[in-house]
Amino acid sequence: QVQLVESGGGLVQAGGSLRLSCAASGRTFDGYTMGWFRQAPGKEREFVAAISWRDITYYADSVKGRFTISRDIAKITVFLQMNSLKAEDTAVYYCAADPWGPGTTSQHEYDYWGQGTQVTVSS
User: Fold this and answer.
1) Burial letters for 51-80: b for 16+ Cβ neighbours within 10 Å, e otherwise?
2) Do residues 9 and 20 make contact, with C-beta atoms less than 8 angstroms apart?
3) pLDDT by residue (tens digit) across 41-79?
4) Which residues of 17-49 are buried (b: 16+ CB within 10 A; e: fewer)?
5) What are the pLDDT digits (tens) for 78-111?
6) What's the rounded Cα separation, in Å, for the pair 46 and 36?
7) How far is Cα 65 from Cα 61, in angstroms, rounded to an integer?
8) Contacts of range 102-110, beta carbons closer than 8 Å, 24 or more positions apart
9) Strand, helix or coil at 15?
10) Which one of 18, 19, 35, 38 has the lowest number of neighbouring Cβ atoms within 10 Å?
11) Residue 16 burial class via C-beta count within 10 angstroms: exposed 0-12, middle 13-18, buried 19 and up
């Protein structure tokens, strides 16, 4: 069982930045494709970004050029750097893990999920 813990959410003004972190308890992310998803009030959860176990990155069109997904060299933590934030980025952000996954935008392919961290962007 992999337990994921997100951190770094908060309140920020439009145009500002936040960096989300995701760590797994008791293990590294070596061999895992990691994804970030978000769910805004009244909306379905949607894909934001992913980094495959081969370090290939994927982004939703809505965040491309503004968000960057990465992992540290030790593959203990996955980050989502969010710049130029907009009010429409307000959501609960979830980290997810897919063992040896090919790098997919489909949430159904991810086996493990964190509890989420709230990001609120004020306009």
Assistant:
1) bbbeeeebbbeebeeebbbebeeebebbbb
2) yes
3) 999 999 999 999 899 999 999 999 999 999 987 778 999
4) ebebbbbbeeeebeebbbbbbbeeeeeebebbb
5) 999 999 999 999 999 999 999 888 878 899 999 9
6) 9
7) 9
8) 102/33, 102/52, 103/33, 103/50, 103/51, 103/52, 103/54, 103/56, 103/58, 104/33, 104/35, 104/50, 104/58, 105/35, 105/47, 105/50, 105/58, 105/60, 106/47, 107/35, 107/37, 107/45, 107/47, 110/35
9) coil
10) 19
11) middle
Write down the residue that tokens 């797994």 correspond to. 24
pLDDT at residue 29, rounded to an integer? 81
* Cα–Cα distance measured from residue 21 to residue 6, given in angstroms and rounded to the nearest whole number: 6
* Cα 11 to Cα 4, 8, 15, 87, distances in angstroms: 22, 10, 12, 11
Give me the DSSP letters along 81-105: EE-S--GGG-EEEEEEEEET----S
